[in-house]
Write a structure and sequence with these properties.
By secondary structure, this protein is of the alpha+beta class. It contains three helices and eight strands, in the order αβββββααβββ. The longest helix is centred in the N-terminal third of the chain and has 8 residues. It binds a DNA duplex (13 and 13 nucleotides) through strand 3, strand 4 and helix 3.
DNA sequence: CGAACGATTAGCT
DNA sequence: GCTAATCGTTCGA
């Protein structure tokens, strides 16, 4: 039987809870993607979050309705994908950091210029490149084309740790991963 | 208007 | 482990 597709109401949860719940779900963009194996939570009370300083032109989508995509450019080079969650106006989101590639392997390999499944989607920038995430997807609903987010079909063992690549609140354990997955951007310890 | 700074990655030591 | 690449956003003058 086919897994259930997540709808906006499924995203009405605090960021850490949402980030935990997304592990094991499947993310597809135009039919290309895989299982979510790594996430990070951010919210308005968090000094490391883009939403911390309040709404701006860049982060306004984070303050809009939950269940949408927040896309931003990182280090002037990479596109990263977040899911807006919690209640509208809360500025909460979940950064999708890594996938286990499942569908559209050939397309992802071509976009990444690789054939090693390990490195296709194991990192937020790599994932963005493999799924062709660009700024035109910013603000789009996750339950409409080209997105598809499918519920996990069974429970998964989740590991928790501190977030990566930030200087503020680096000790907050808001990074979540699928235990033992070889597709994590970095191992948990 | 200028300057500093990344929610990163690849490549080299 | 260290650093360059590269550019939009943000903040101060």
């Amino acid at each position: 039987m086919k897994p259930r597709r997540l709808k906006p109401a499924d995203f009405l949860r605090p960021a850490p809870e949402m980030a935990h719940a997304l592990i094991g779900c499947v993310l597809l963009v135009d039919g290309v993607g895989g299982r979510i194996v790594e996430t990070e939570a951010y919210d308005m009370a968090d000094p490391a979050s883009h939403s911390f300083t309040g709404p701006t032109t860049r982060n306004q989508v984070m303050f809009g309705p939950p269940g949408r995509a927040y896309v931003y450019r990182s280090y002037g080079i990479h596109w990263c994908l977040n899911f807006v969650c919690d209640e509208e106006g809360h500025g909460a989101g979940v950064l999708i950091r890594a996938l286990e590639p499942l569908q559209g392997m050939a397309v992802m390999c071509e976009r990444r210029g690789l054939h090693a499944p390990r490195l296709l989607c194991s990192g937020p920038g790599r994932l963005g490149q493999a799924l062709a995430i660009e700024h035109d997807l910013n603000g789009l609903r996750l339950d409409h084309k080209p997105f598809e987010v499918l519920a996990a079909e069974r429970p998964h063992e989740v590991v928790v740790g501190p977030r990566i690549g930030i200087s503020k609140a680096a000790d907050v354990p808001w990074r979540f991963g699928l235990a033992g997955s070889p597709h994590l951007s970095r191992p948990f310890r």
